[in-house]
Amino acid sequence: MYADDKDIFGLLTGALKDVVAFRPDDPLLYLIQYFRRNCQPALRACVIGPSLSGRHSISRKLSEAFGVPLVDDHRLLNEADPQLRNMVKTFHQKHKLLSPQLAFSLVRPVIFGEECIAKGWILCGYPQSRAQDAYFRKNGINAQKTIILTITPEAAKQRCLKTEHRSTCDPSEHAQMMTRELLYEMDMIGKSCAQLAQEDPACAVLDANREFDQVLSDARHFCSIRPIEHRPYMHRVLFLGRPGTGKKKMAKYLADHFRLSHISSGSLLMRAASDPEHEYCREINMYLNRGHQMPDELVSNLLCKALKDTELQGFVLSGFPCTQRQAEILDQSGFRPSKVFFFNTPVDVAREHFINREKEHHDKALSLRDFYEDEGARLGLQTDEYGNYGLGYQSQEVQRDMFGEQNNLFEDNEQSLREFYGNVEYEIDATLPENDVFGLLKYHLVHPQPLRPQEPQRSR
Q1: Can you point out the beta strands (E) in 319-356?
Q2: 338-424-414 Cα angle (round to 5)
Q3: For residue 330, how many C-alpha atoms fall within 13 Å in the half-sphere facing its CB?
Q4: DSSP 21-81
């Protein structure tokens, strides 16, 4: 009972997670600092409800009680760019709900900021609808707790009459107007929130008709209940997507940030092919020279040998698996990923990035010609028709053909891979700026897997 009440197992599990992931030079000192810093885990909660339900006051009090940043409309609008701010104000003036995409664009920069990632957050007033909630969850804004405040129109009208407003209209007329808005909000928000609460055990519906102190006490108690985590922890991350989406670059950034091993299947194959002493050198070169696809078992054996060195560190793997069969082999070898990121980019954009990337690599190789000549001679590599080692640059037509082959392989197997990794799948918009993509990846990696909203039932 004591261990459950104090969440001892959750605290120790979190400490071991960080020690294994970050490998500090002095583990004892690191653990002391960890317990001082993380005796109370960061809270991520949404407080939603119609007007006059007290959502702003409850959110502010929770923010003060748990020491986490408050994210409300005032802060969101202040930190939004002018164009987005004007669009949101236009929706507010017309008493319309924001579209899911617009609401996410407003909330994302603050929630994915360094402060909220490190300290947690209280999000006031969002999501406003069922559609917003589904879109937020799909794109990584996942609250540990959701508090839904309900209030009757009669109680809201009484509160409106008792509250001092700066409105020039008659208080009774203002109360009637607020009541009409309340009924609209309850229809748009209340019903969808009630459905959400039935499906999500991390939601609490609180009766806001009661005294404020009673509602606040229930809200604080609900937020103080922490889930106990029993799963062993290890970052095992896969990056999947069509070529040209920046997977390898982001994998390196993420691995460096969290001190994980970055493993690229393409790099492993090329290193093995260029090392005459490697056990798979001859076999890999045979398939490369014939232009045939590598057998699943060959690539899997090569990768598993590299993955075994990451058992106490974790890994970020890019370029593999490409098929469901490869995913099954990886799973059977004991390296099932904890999180899988699908990088989404339109085909035309990915193709352009792919061609430009190959040209950048070629230009960089030309600038390091002396290095390539020395290394090529040392490794005994063959030169091309111009006497250069690895400096050949294919024409754009050839590059397009290469992209087409790799892209077709991904598209043919994309659906089966999504179904195979459905429980740990995350969507990444790779068209966003690099800093936003990296921030999104960091957020996903330090937060739990989102609850997937159920699909609405179709009427027969």
Answers
A1: 339-344
A2: 115
A3: 25
A4: HH--SSHHHHHHHHHHHHSSPPEEEEEE--TTS-HHHHHHHHHHHHT--EE-HHHHHHHS-
Look up the CATH architecture of domain 1-37: Up-down Bundle (1.20)
Instruction: List helix spans (H) across 147-239.
Output: 153-162, 171-185, 191-199, 212-224
pLDDT band at 363 (very low <50, low <70, confident <90, very high): low
Q: Are the CB atoms for 157 and 52 separated by under 8 Å?
A: no
219 touches 225 (CB < 8 A)? no
Give every CB contact of residue 421 below 8 A, 6+ residues apart in sequence: 238, 327, 337, 340
Interatomic CA distance for residues 12 and 16, integer angstroms: 6
324, 300, 322, 325: which is closest to 408 by C-alpha? 322
444, 337 in Cβ contact below 8 A?
Answer: no
Task: From residue 200, give the alpha-carbon distance in Å to each of 46, 93, 137, 298.
Answer: 13, 32, 12, 44
- Render the burial of 113-146: b for 16+ CB within 10 Å, e for the rest: beebbeebbbbbbbbbbbbbbbbbbbbbbbbbbb
| pLDDT band with cut points at 50, 70 and 90 for residue 362 | low
Tokens 């069969």 label which residue? 325
Please state the φ and ψ torsions of residue 368, each to the nearest 5 degrees.
-115, 35
CATH 3.40.50.300 segments of the chain: 42-224, 236-446
Query: What order of strands is seen across the sheet that includes strand 43-48?
Result: 70-71, 120-124, 43-48, 145-150, 203-207
Cα separation of 44 and 451, whole Å?
14
Instruction: Kindly report, residue by residue over 43-89, the tens digit of the pLDDT.
Output: 889 998 877 888 999 999 999 988 899 999 999 999 999 999 999 88
Which CATH code for domain 42-224? 3.40.50.300
- Do 110 and 169 touch, CB atoms closer than 8 A? no
**What pTM was computed for the model?**
0.47
Query: Whole-angstrom distance between the N-terminal and C-terminal Cα of the chain?
Result: 49
Q: How far is CA 9 from CA 118, 147, 208, 228, 254, in A?
A: 22, 26, 35, 7, 28
How many whole angstroms separate alpha carbon 390 and alpha carbon 274? 11
Q: Is residue 127 reached through a cis peptide bond, with omega within 30 degrees of 0 on the bond before it?
A: yes
* Bond preceding residue 321 cis, omega within 30 of 0: yes
The CATH H-level (homologous superfamily) assignment of domain 236-446 is P-loop containing nucleotide triphosphate hydrolases (3.40.50.300)
